[in-house]
Amino acid sequence: MINETMNAIIKARKSRQRRYIFVTVLLAVITIALACAMMMLGNTIYPVRDVVRVLFGETVPGASFAINEIRLPRTVAGLFAGFAFGAGGYIFQTMLRNPLANPNVIGITTGSSAAAVFCIIILHTSSTVVSLAAVIGGLVTVAIIYGLSKGSSFSIGRLILIGIGIQAMLNAFISYLMLIGKTSDLPTALRWLSGSLNGAELEMTFPLIVAVIIATPILIYFAKHLEMLELGEQAATSLGVNTNQTRAILMICAVIVIALATATTGPIAFVAFLAGPIAQRLVGVGFSNIVPAGLIGIILVLGGDLIGQFAFETRYPVGVITGIIGAPYLIYLLIRINRKGDI
Question: In terms of pTM, does the model score above 0.70?
């Protein structure tokens, strides 16, 4: 009887593992296809042959400038920002055991945006300082929300409600900055607020690339601890997890990559919110969904950008498209949670 139970458990685990590998590979293939489409499509459509020649350093009249200066930076920004939003959102939702506990809803991306817009409109700083300010703004926002929600005991519901309140205040602050700002600074600031890949530059993307490369292995390493945190504070502690240390490391890594993604593309709406639930639906439970959630984040950003650029007569920023996709799901989730009484 025991052997039969063990065999059934092993068989089920292998089945979940095959599903995880299949879904992850499929998502990677879709990501590559969208990246190729981003490099090929535009006012002029270039064949794969010309794109490859340009990427390997050859000069192709007409194609070299468009690919190297416009499409390549746009694609790289979409790849790394999408992965950062997707993986970071999944970390928050899993760690806090609530789909509403993501950077968009609880004000983390708004904190990064407020700091960045302040640097653009008031201080007129360089893009490097703006990126640094976005990271600091995100970390300070997390510290404030976490500190106010802790009280005598940590409460996820309290954290979400306080985060929503902080987000409202930060949005009011951003609106005030937009009112007092110079007309010449407003287009740059508006790019932050809408979330866009327009005007992306490789130099601006470099800090995000470095952060994602460093943070992703750390997040994957702590994936088992993250799954234990999902069981609850007491259960995780009884299993030997230092919950405060683990939560701090995961939160800092997630905030840094999300803040730098925001500094690069602006707060692309609902990517961090949607990626985790989609990954869990596709992959299931039993394995860490950090990488699948990151890949889904990329697919949402690149796919949304392609739709915004080519599906309509007017070109829209990617944040507008992802906002249209994500808003109905947020309303549905709020109704469902309200019925369950989770908050």
Answer: yes
